[in-house]
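Technical note accompanying the year-one report. For the benefit of new consortium partners, we illustrate the data format agreed upon in the data management plan: each record pairs a sequence with a structure-token string. No post-processing was applied to the example shown here.
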Amino acid sequence: MNTVWIELAKLGGSIAAILLLAWTAKRMGLGGDIRIRDENHARRLAEEAVCGFEPVSVVLGRAGIGALMKDSAGRHLLIRRHGAQFAGRLLDGHSDSRLDQNFLTIGTGEKAFGKVTLNLGTEAQYWAAGLRHMAV
């Protein structure tokens, strides 16, 4: 009988500890569903990814998980959600892109970065054409 109470106390303590950790994580803002909020947010992410990259053209994926940008030199930068943060890569002629109506799938050839599919709406064709004409 005594062991039953001990086991119930352990269970109650474990549940209390889990709830405390969940509450602490929520207060710290950890584990949220991060998205690119707007064009200004995407521009800040671009500056963090590539120092000095100043986009003249920006398109956001409708889900907020990625953005594609072009600077005045014609360089293209892909920003995508990578875990709980965002990562960016400059694209070159070796980048893999595929257009499917309003969806543009872009890969850098870097396995750790992977591919991302962005719903760019009617702008998908414009950006796909720009990626096809990049120099190698």
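Partners are asked to follow this layout when depositing records. The beta strands are 55-60, 66-71, 76-82, 85-91, 96-100, 103-107, 115-119.
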